[in-house]
Amino acid sequence: MIRLLLPISGALLLAACAGGKSPPRTLPPPAKASAATANDAARLGKWPVKLGKPYQVAGLTYVPVDDRDYREDGIASWYGPGFHALNTANGERYDQDDLTAAHRTLPMPSWVEVENLDNGRRLTVRINDRGPFARGRIIDLSRKSAQLLGVDRAGTARVRLRRVYPPGEAAPAPPAVPSVVVAAVTVPEVASIAVPGGSNAPAGWLVQVAALADGGRVAWLKGYLSSFGPVLSETAPGGLTRVRLGPYASQSAASAALAQVRAAGYGDARMIPPAPSR
What we know:
The chain has about 280 residues and is α+β, with helices and mostly antiparallel strands. The protein has a domain at about 190-270: Alpha-Beta Plaits. About 15% of the residues lie in helices and about 25% in strands. The protein has 4 helices and 13 strands. It has helices at about 35-45, 145-150, 215-225, 250-265; strands spanning about 55, 60, 70-80, 100, 110-115, 120-130, 135-140, 155-165, 190-195, 205-210, 230-235, 240-250, 270. The strands form 3 sheets. The protein has a 6-stranded mixed beta barrel. Strands 9-11-12-10-13 form a 5-stranded mixed β-sheet. Strand 1 (about 55) and strand 2 form a beta hairpin. The longest helix has 13 residues, at about 250-265. The protein is elongated. It starts with about 35 loop residues before the first helix and ends in a 6-residue tail after the last strand.
């Protein structure tokens, strides 16, 4: 979904699916391997666990929390082709055929059992993204998960979520605060401007982190990146929104920001040189 562009855990979420300035993150970079290898590492619990700071999407504040006894009833939706192979909020590549899902506040990775209350089917999925940000929905399933649960054709379904723990995971601790806290924390507005084109383009080096079509995931990513530096956004002709950091006065400053972003899991991030002066 962060096809947020979401290690919310990118939150991700997404994370799913937002804070004051803080020093650059210094998470160790993931191994240089294929997307499949990264996803396998996450399944085995070897991917860095992310919780993330509070963030805002569409005027609502979401507070990630490690609720060890999480249970919730609500509406599930699913996402697929438009996000396939894009980065999730925790830095993996989204594979629509994996048994994964997006959640707004649970750690990434974590696991939940999803029960479709309309047909009784149950499935355990791994949380690796932030979302959904549509009101009333509590989880966004991968396409494969939706197919197995019988959600894909209808698009949504009534579900019951229960956090579970694969072998080797610690036993649940006493219940934490509720896992979804909306508008409970005041988070400063993310410094973000639109990137103009042509001769008015920003003078300096940019770091492009991702290009996304989902407005909610764009908002999540901008909030997440705010601790790395100034966040810029630009709507491309095809409808995607490019999310960037900068501008930076020198190539070395942009290179340092690029290293930090890649270390946080955004391996496809790249530098963009200043536009030639006319």
